[in-house]
Design a protein that fits this description.
The protein has helices at residues 37-47, 69-82, 96-106, 111-114, 117-137, and strands at residues 3-8, 13-19, 26-33, 50-57, 88-92. The protein is α/β, with parallel strands linked by helices. It has a single domain (3-137), classed as Nucleotidyltransferase, domain 5. Strand 4, helix 2 and strand 5 form a beta-alpha-beta unit.
Length: 138
C-alpha cells in the first residue's frame, strides 16, 4: 500500500514525515539538508510507494506570504514536474513549529534537546501530516 509523505521545507533543513502503509499514523522520517531534498526524495520513492506529497505552505497569521513562501511554491512546481505520477498538495503550516515545540515540552524533553532545530523540523512535518490524516477521517 502507498504512503503519504509530508515535507516541512526550510532554508537550511527540511523535515520529512510519512504515514504507515495503512495511512493511520504519521511518523517522523528524517530531517535533511534542504540542498539534498530532491536527491533524498528520489531515493525514497525508488524503494517506497507514495500516493501523495503534502508540502507545508508557510504564511503569516494574516494569510499573506512570508519570506520563504516563494521558495516553497517553486519547490511545489519542481515536485510536480519531477514526480508527475504523485500528486502534490499545499497544506497550511502556520502553527506547526509552535505545536512541535510544545509537543517537545509536553513529552518531557530536556531544554538542551528542545534546542535541536532538526528535531523541530521533523516533528513539524509529522504534525502537518497527522493533521491531514485526522481531517480526512472527519
Amino acid at each position: 500500500m502507498a504512503r503519504i509523505l509530508a515535507i516541512d521545507y526550510g532554508k537550511k533543513r527540511t523535515g520529512l514525515a510519512v504515514t504507515d502503509p495503512l495511512k493511520i499514523i504519521a511518523s517522523g522520517l528524517a530531517t535533511i539538508d534542504t540542498e539534498q531534498l530532491i536527491w533524498q526524495l528520489k531515493q525514497y520513492f525508488a524503494k517506497e510507494s507514495v500516493e501523495l506529497i503534502l508540502l507545508g505552505h508557510p504564511r503569516r497569521l494574516d494569510g499573506t506570504d512570508n519570506e520563504i513562501t516563494p521558495k516553497v511554491e517553486k519547490l511545489f512546481a519542481q515536485l510536480q514536474r519531477l514526480f508527475p505520477e504523485i500528486p502534490v498538495q499545499l497544506v497550511d503550516e502556520r502553527f506547526t513549529s509552535k505545536m512541535a515545540f510544545q509537543a517537545m515540552i509536553d513529552s518531557g524533553l530536556k531544554k538542551k534537546d528542545r534546542q535541536n532545530k532538526a528535531l523541530v523540523d521533523e516533528i513539524s512535518a509529522t504534525i502537518l501530516l497527522q493533521g491531514y490524516l485526522d481531517g480526512q477521517r472527519q
